[in-house]
Write a structure and sequence with these properties.
Elements lengths: L1 E2 L10 H13 L9 H21 L6 E4 L2 H16 L5 E5 L4 H12 L3 E5 L9 H7 L4 E7 L11 H8 L6 E5 L18 E5 L10 E5 L25 H36 L5 E3 L11 E6 L4 H9 L3 E2 L15 H5 L4 H4 L2 E5 L6 H22 L1
Parallel strand pairs: 1-11, 3-4, 3-5, 5-6, 6-7
Antiparallel strand pairs: 2-8, 7-8, 9-10, 10-12
Helix pairs in contact: 1-7, 2-7, 3-4, 7-11
């Protein structure tokens, strides 16, 4: 099997599963309990929080465990809207955000908030100048994704953070789900107020996430109850999931340090080979503007879902678009946003690599793409 759908989800590291199993079996106590069993669980939870904070270069009291990216994004957007609605009702975001941002914006719009959607250029990047032009005295939040999940564009996060440092009343949120472990970022240097992570995107386990919120920033909680997570996210903590997330993040950042160059070589090889195949258009911007683990392309005249299943016959797994949208058959708003014609966008695919993929696998993938394309062309005649 050659698995190339790592932006949808990654295969958990064996060490992560081992940690989760061990903690689940030996440290099953409720971390809120005051007896020894509970206190042992609480100690592990504290250690996991400190480890993740250390890896991200922030304080442990700025880290909150969540169930993943969707909860993190919903918590931030709705929490800020509720907390600061007395100061303003205007929010700025982009046209290419993940639906866990976009759908929340639609809900907030229905609640009376004014949303400005900034378009992207041909590289899928938002303009800092465009954000600046659209700031109003009522603006309370700017939310921009770190890395686009469909074509891999890297957004100018640090530049946006510098811009917003002149507006202390505007909260700066970054959806970091596709960026962490692939693109270096300093949350402090980029002046980010909140950053969302999802563990299963970096070989952790599904149902686990982390939300960074800068110390001193106040947001009303989405979940009320027992007051866990410093009253910010009530609900009994998933200690085993937190420990597994800390281990996954450590291993992923280690891979980023040691294997990023190899990942770039795989990306370059795929680009060069795909460019030689008739009818293929590559949509991901050049590597200096995008991450190496995502490569989006189209094959003219071939339906995306048909080609995905054709590659499946070779035991190769890619996706048509983001996993959350792949079953809706909607044309990618990101591709339309960068100017890809609708007919071409309908035939788009996403290869998303991990640090575990090899050059030998990429050679097999290119051969399978050529073979499947020719076979489908013959069937369609």
């Amino acid at each position: 099997m050659i698995y190339l759908d790592n932006s949808a989800t990654t295969k958990p590291f064996p060490e992560v599963i081992e940690s989760y199993t061990t903690v689940s079996q030996k440290y099953f106590g409720n971390p809120s309990s005051i007896h020894r069993i509970g206190m042992e669980s609480e100690k592990l939870l504290i250690q996991a929080r400190e480890q993740i904070a250390g890896l991200l270069g922030v304080k442990s009291n700025e880290m909150y465990f969540t169930s993943g990216g969707t909860e993190g994004n919903n918590t931030v957007l709705k929490g800020i809207a509720r907390t600061y609605k007395g100061k303003g009702n205007h929010i700025i975001t982009t046209t290419v955000e993940h639906d866990s941002i976009h759908k929340v914006m639609e809900q907030l719009e229905a609640d009376g908030f004014s949303i400005t959607y900034i378009p992207v250029n041909e590289f899928g990047q938002v303009s800092v100048e465009d954000i600046s032009k659209n700031i109003r005295k009522e603006t309370i939040l700017v939310s921009v994704m770190h890395v686009n999940n469909e074509i891999g564009s890297i957004q100018p996060i640090e530049e946006i953070g510098n811009l917003l440092s002149d507006y202390p009343n505007i909260f700066f949120h970054v959806d970091g789900v596709q960026g962490i472990g692939k693109q270096t970022i300093s949350l402090k240097k980029a002046k980010i107020d909140a950053y969302t992570l999802s563990a299963h995107k970096f070989h952790g386990l599904k149902g686990n996430g982390v939300l960074y919120i800068k110390e001193g920033k106040r947001i009303e909680p989405l979940l009320a109850g027992g007051g866990q997570e410093n009253t910010f996210r009530s609900g009994t903590e998933n200690v085993a999931g937190a420990v597994a997330t800390a281990k996954a993040l450590r291993l992923q950042l280690q891979n980023q340090k040691e294997k990023l160059t190899i990942l770039k070589q795989l990306n370059v090889y795929l680009r060069e080979q795909l460019a030689t195949i008739e009818g293929i258009s590559i949509h991901s911007p050049a590597l200096e503007k995008s991450v190496p683990h995502i490569l989006n392309f189209s094959i003219e005249g071939i339906k995306a879902e048909v080609f995905v299943h054709a590659l499946e016959e070779h035991d190769i797994y890619i996706s048509t678009t983001s996993a959350c949208s792949s079953k809706t058959n909607k044309i990618s708003k990101t591709l339309l946003g960068i100017g890809v014609p609708e007919q071409i966008a309908e035939s788009s695919f996403r290869i998303s690599l991990s640090y575990e993929n090899t050059m030998e696998e990429m050679k097999q993938v290119i051969a399978a793409i050529k073979d499947s394309k020719e076979w489908l062309r013959g069937v369609m005649k």
